[in-house]
Amino acid sequence: MHKKIARWVQDKQNGIKRAVVTAYDYPFARFATEAGVHGILVGDSLGMVVTGADDTLGVTLEQMAYHTQMVARAAAGCLVFADLPFGTYEKGPKQAWNAAVTLLRAGADVIKLEGGAEMAPTVAFCAERGINICAHIGLTPQRVRQWGSFQRQGTNVESACRLQMDAGALAEAGARFVVLEAVPDALAARITRDIAVPTIGIGAGPDTDAQVLVMHDLLGLGADSPPFARRYIEGGRIMRDALAEYVQDVGSGHFPPRRKC
Ligand code: KIV
């Protein structure tokens, strides 16, 4: 097992929490690495927070590879996760394998895909052939057109049982991590206790082994963020103020300063 992943498993066993954040380019990945995050996710959320689309469905494999390359260059010491985008893996294990290889070659350590027990054969196929897979269950944004909105999952008994079974089947198939998105805290705690691989929660309460946040939510770069995200700074306002000052300085002649020669 990859030394860094073995460390994650050890930390799960010892109750030590890990922090993951998304990044999509070199400078943000560097900030994250320098801040000491344990994992960087090159998420297909880039379709929404970087390109401004309403969902993640338009993101391509080539775009993911491009952004993964930028992040991997800055991510020494922490694990790089990259998302398989919609339409690049659902047809079956071989399609998933081909797409995963592209992201691996771009610098990812772990490849994330969305879906429950139906993806277990794909996870097993890739895991048996040397690819670290992170499964993503609960609110899986790539299914938004089927669901009609970004809905919390696992909120009734039937759906909670299904998610618990999904997590077990994916871990059994060889997934190295399981992301739990927008599920009740108690369910996330139960799944985290039940499976041996680290869980990474987002909107899933404090009891998962790790947390992940979208960088643009954490830094307050977008107009709004999901209710579970914490905006550690209002980065958008700080940047806007700096840009406005620059515009003012150019207009008033304060920038650039007059030089002697
Ligand atoms: O694409 C992404 O950023 C994600 C996280 C929200 C888990 O999948």
**In this structure, how is the largest beta sheet organized?**
8 strands, parallel, barrel
Straight-line N-to-C gap:
62 Å
Percent range of helical residues = 40-55%
Helix segment tally: 11
| Shape call | globular
- List low-pLDDT spans: none
Overall number of structural domains: 1
Q: Number of DSSP strands?
A: 8
Percentage of residues in DSSP E strands:
5-15%
SSE ordering: HEHEHHEHEHEHHEHEEHH
- Mean pLDDT over all positions: 96
What small molecules does this complex bind?
3-methyl-2-oxobutanoic acid
What CATH calls the topology is TIM Barrel
Class per helix and strand makeup:
alpha/beta
Task: Return the CATH architecture.
Answer: Alpha-Beta Barrel
Can you describe what's shown?
The radius of gyration is 20 Å and the shape is globular. The protein is of the alpha/beta class and 261 residues long. An eight-stranded parallel β-barrel has the order 1-2-3-4-5-6-7-8, surrounded by seven helices. The longest helix has 18 residues, at 235-252. It has helices at 3-13, 26-35, 46-49, 61-74, 93-105, 120-127, 144-147, 157-173, 185-194, 215-218, 235-252, and strands at 18-22, 39-42, 79-83, 110-114, 132-138, 177-181, 199-202, 210-213. The protein has a single domain (3-252), classed as TIM Barrel, CATH 3.20.20. Helix 4 runs parallel beside helix 5 (93-105) and helix 5 (93-105) crosses helix 6. The structure holds 3-methyl-2-oxobutanoic acid. 3-methyl-2-oxobutanoic acid is lined by residues 22, 41, 43-45, 83, 136, 179, 181, 202, 212, 214.
